[in-house]
């Protein structure tokens, strides 16, 4: 029993063991040992340290080594505040180290603008600045496609409502349920979901996960080299019907059947010179009727 007391009570305050010859006061039991005061929370220590450091910072000249040292200590002491704010953006699939760095910039700005004489706790003052800096980073640098501000703010509400309804129903809510919760139309909900996808860009060359299919780029259509001729063929078809029937046949035999002028003259029973003149006249009519060349 005495040995246990020595282990649980500091040596400076531990009671002396009674002599076996002389009766003395009994050693106090563990129930009689006074309970130590509970340790202060880390947050309370940080707030107290921050208050002391701001008091020192106020008395120092900006730009001096001592001022920079105290300012750096304030940043280090309040980094947990940045990590707490950055954790709210884990669903964005952005590297957390980048988000913390951006939040730290907001923390530094808050430290430089904070006035301890106003009676406001520093975490209360700094949190909006840190979160605002992170949101600005996502708005200006992360999105692949720019989203209107109203649609982005509505997407935040849709995302929050989706999480609440998932917890309530034990399943993913439908579009109609989300729309009813927020009192908006289903089309607005679908637009917000599409807006949320602007944070994520998929590489065209990345292979599809799980199914082993090639990348999206390999499955896209290619430009058909004959595509440019579609408009030309349609134009020629339109112009040919305006020619006399015999001239249409001569053109077809010459350029579709690939016959020579002598073969065409034998086919039609006319001279080769006449076939040549008819071809020249047909070309002249086609050029005059072709509005594109005109």
Summarize the structure.
The chain is mainly alpha-helical and 294 residues long. It has 14 helices and no strands.
Structure description:
- This protein is mainly α and 294 residues long.
- It has three domains: 42-142, Four Helix Bundle (Hemerythrin (Met), subunit A) (Up-down Bundle); 144-199, Orthogonal Bundle (Arc Repressor Mutant, subunit A); 242-294, Arc Repressor Mutant, subunit A (Orthogonal Bundle).
- It contains 14 helices and no strands.
- The protein is elongated, with a radius of gyration of 42 Å.
- The termini are far apart.
Set down the secondary structure blueprint.
Layout: H1 2-8, H2 42-58, H3 65-77, H4 79-86, H5 96-113, H6 122-142, H7 149-169, H8 175-182, H9 186-196, H10 216-219, H11 228-240, H12 245-255, H13 261-268, H14 272-289
Question: What key attributes describe this structure?
Answer:
294 residues, elongated, disordered N terminus, mainly alpha, Four Helix Bundle (Hemerythrin (Met), subunit A), 3 domains, 0% strand, Arc Repressor Mutant, subunit A
What is the mean pLDDT? 78
Oligomer: single chain
Please compute the radius of gyration using only Cα atoms: 42 Å
- How many beta-strand runs? 0
- The computed structural class is mainly alpha
Instruction: Estimate nothing, just give the exact number of structural domains.
Output: 3
The N- to C-terminal Cα distance equals: 115 Å
The amount of helix comes to 55-70%
Unreliable stretches covering 5 or more consecutive residues: 1-25, 27-39
Largest beta sheet, briefly? none
Number of helices in the DSSP assignment: 14
Please identify the top-level CATH class of the largest domain: Mainly Alpha
Reading the helices and strands in chain order gives: HHHHHHHHHHHHHH
Shape: elongated
According to CATH, what is the topology of the largest domain?
A: Four Helix Bundle (Hemerythrin (Met), subunit A)
What share of residues are in beta strands? under 5%
What CATH architecture of the largest domain would you give? Answer: Up-down Bundle
């Amino acid at each position: 029993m005495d040995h246990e007391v020595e282990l649980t009570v500091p040596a400076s305050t531990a009671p002396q063991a009674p002599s076996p010859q002389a009766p003395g006061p009994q050693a106090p039991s563990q129930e009689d040992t006074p309970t130590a005061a509970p340790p202060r929370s880390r947050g309370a220590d940080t707030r107290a340290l921050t208050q002391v450091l701001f008091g020192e910072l106020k008395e120092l000249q900006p730009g001096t080594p001592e001022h920079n040292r105290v300012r750096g200590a304030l940043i280090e002491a309040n980094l947990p505040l940045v990590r707490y704010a950055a954790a709210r953006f884990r669903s964005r699939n952005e590297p957390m180290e980048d988000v913390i760095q951006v939040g730290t910039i907001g923390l530094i700005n808050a430290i430089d603008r904070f006035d301890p004489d106003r009676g406001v706790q520093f975490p209360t003052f700094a949190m909006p600045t840190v979160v605002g800096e992170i949101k600005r980073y996502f708005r200006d640098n992360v999105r692949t496609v720019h989203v209107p501000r109203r649609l982005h703010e509505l997407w935040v509400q849709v995302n929050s409502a989706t999480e609440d309804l998932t917890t309530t129903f034990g399943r993913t809510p439908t579009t109609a349920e989300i729309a009813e919760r927020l009192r908006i139309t289903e089309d607005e909900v679908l637009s917000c979901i599409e807006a949320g996808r602007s944070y994520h860009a998929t590489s065209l060359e990345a292979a599809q996960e799980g199914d082993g299919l090639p990348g999206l780029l390999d499955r896209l259509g290619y430009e058909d080299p004959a595509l440019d001729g579609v408009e030309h063929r349609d134009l020629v078809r339109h112009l040919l019907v305006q020619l006399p029937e015999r001239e249409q046949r001569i053109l077809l035999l010459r350029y579709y059947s690939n016959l020579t002028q002598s073969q065409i003259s034998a086919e039609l029973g006319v001279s080769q010179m006449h076939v040549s003149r008819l071809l020249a006249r047909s070309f002249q009519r086609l050029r005059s009727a072709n509005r594109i060349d005109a």
